[in-house]
Amino acid sequence: MTIRPDIRFCTTADGVQLAMGLYGKGPPIVRAATWLTHMERDVESDGNRPWIEALSQHHTYVTYDMRGCGLSSRQVDDVSVDAWVRDLETVVDALGLERFPLVGFSQGAAIAVRYAALHPERVSALVAFGPFATSYFTTGNPDPRIREEAEMLLKIVKLGWGQQSPALRQVFVSKFMPNASAERRSAFDDYQRLTADAGMAERCMRAMFSVDVRADAKRVRCPALVFHSRRDQMIHFEMGRKLAALIPGARFVPIDSDNHLPFGDEPAWATVAGHLRDFLGEVAPLPQAVHLTPRQAEVLLQVSAGHTDKAIARALQLSPRTVEMHVAGAMKALDCATRAEAVAKAAAAGWLAPR
Question: What's the predicted TM-score (pTM) here?
Fold first, then answer.
């Protein structure tokens, strides 16, 4: 039986209507939007369908179309990373979600990273696939060919996105799925044209090329799982590894695939699905019987920010020895052997939300 989303709508503070798609039942898990989505057609997409099927089995999987794309408002003024983050905030608030794992693919991973840094009390876990912390315009690499390649890609979108001939769009198809069958490549070409017009595609790409979430990644405090396809031609493998290195305690998993997002029928997807199951099981909420005292939670929050015992003692007007005792008490309550494990477990359970 084909999975169909429960489609709903919400409106942002600047008047943009966002289309949301909800799949399955259970605790929520949210995906930050990317520009290649369409709520009525996502389940037909070879890249999106495996995630929908896997994450809707035991969760309410919440997705939405980015502003200017899919079923969301097509005419919008602001296309930027900050606007995309505010859109995610709008979706979460509209659905009344308090705490949830957050998923992001490609540019959606950058949105998810910034949201997780801004809202640690809401994000219990972070999953990123094919991510990047910087892009063409923010890399810092002085090689002029990098900027030239970005401008070339933008021109290809401007000239070829809305044309009947797929010749120019095949540049992007080849980057997303280089060795796919002709049938799959043709279907993706039709799908990407459906998701946005040429003007919006160019604006989304320009904003994407300006992403810089390095500082945000360092402030993420929840458990994080980062995947990247080894032979990804859309976002190079090293970019995913660099982002994972910035997130404290993040787990990095290389995926043996040529595709930007692996298909559900290739062996690589089984690897992804297995890690997802294990990771989401690990970050499940703690039993209600486990409690931290307010002071233990306060001290662990300081530990999660990287402060030393002496610095924490000064900030909370305690002695360093008392700080040690509160950390030890929290580790015992959480059944953890290390401080890092205690921070991850407490964050996943919502104990480290700022008070």
Answer: 0.80
